[in-house]
Write a structure and sequence with these properties.
heterodimer; A: 226 residues; mainly alpha; 7 helices; 73% helix; B: 69 residues; elongated
């Protein structure tokens, strides 16, 4: 219970973002209207993905230093959780785009960038799946993961800012300037991001713990519990 | 002269556009029904977290059992 405070915090923050995300005051913007509230949910998915991929990168670097298989596994599971968040971000983004930009997929640099980023990370998982030797797999995919992270930063953080994009904060403007994000939005958005990142850590840790249990014969343990 | 009139009309039209109030779901908030939606969402969210929490505790119990052996 003592070590679980952050799990409860995750729930409290996400609940807060749902309650205040609907009841709170938001800026009145043309075209967007009430959909500005999607910021708390759609954009939070992408920030959670960034958090998961950063954790994955850290574990990959740790593995390259330590060669401990636990680090390698953590890198993989974090990337997988990140991809779940990315899929949700993409789907919610398509719904939002359909109603504000007129089409679910525009050839916006940010959209294409995220699509490439997701392919890069799927390739990471495929690379892992194609190598049988755990040591070789760990080292190769660890190095690849570092490249994948750099590519992600370039594709979603740098390239969209160099060209025109429908996304706010792109096309030369700094992200989250006073026009895009006012304090009312920030008050819900940042807690939501933290809540979802903690949620991602929770789920990932749960999967890692289950995996650690599976390495030894525990089938009878599972039977006893059921 | 014609250009000047066009320019004047253009500036007028843009300022008119800018002043048009942005439509928001104010009525939904006025009659309070939005609280129902928020309540339903909160219940769903709480249920999901309780479910995740129980899974977490089950895994902890498994770990304890494994450590005992």
């Amino acid at each position: 219970m003592k070590k679980s405070w952050w799990k409860i915090l995750s729930f409290v923050l996400i609940l807060y973002s749902v309650i205040w995300g609907f009841l709170g005051d938001v800026p009145r913007l043309p075209i967007l209207n009430e959909t500005i509230r999607n910021l708390y949910f759609h954009v939070a998915m992408w920030f959670a993905m960034l958090g998961m991929m950063t954790a994955s990168l850290v574990y990959s670097i740790k593995y390259l230093k330590s060669s401990s298989s636990a680090h390698d596994l953590a890198a993989r599971i974090f990337a997988e959780t990140g991809l779940v968040f990315a899929t949700l971000g993409l789907l919610t983004g398509m719904v939002w785009a359909n109603f504000t930009w007129g089409a679910p997929w525009t050839n916006d640099p940010k959209l294409n960038g995220t699509a490439i980023t997701m392919l890069v990370y799927f390739a990471y998982l495929i690379l892992r799946g194609s190598l049988d030797d755990p040591e070789k797999r760990g080292r190769l995919s660890g190095v690849y993961n570092i490249f994948a992270y750099v590519l992600m930063i370039v594709f979603i953080g740098i390239l969209p800012r160099l060209t025109d994009s429908l996304h706010p904060g792109n096309g030369g403007n700094p992200g989250f300037n006073s026009y895009d994000m006012d304090s009312r939005l920030r008050m819900v958005f940042y807690p939501a991001v933290l809540g979802w990142i903690l949620f991602g850590f929770w789920v990932t840790r749960l999967r890692l713990r289950l995996n650690a249990l599976r390495t030894k014969p525990v089938d009878e343990l599972f039977e006893n519990l059921q | 002269m014609r250009n000047a009139i066009t320019l004047l009309l253009l500036t007028l039209s843009t300022s008119l556009l800018a002043q048009r109030p942005v439509e928001m779901a104010d009525t939904m908030r006025d009659n309070g029904k939005i609280y129902v939606v928020v309540l339903v969402l909160s219940i769903v969210l709480a249920g999901m977290f309780i479910y995740l929490w129980t899974i977490d505790r089950k895994v902890t119990r498994l770990e304890n059992k494994k450590n005992e052996e």
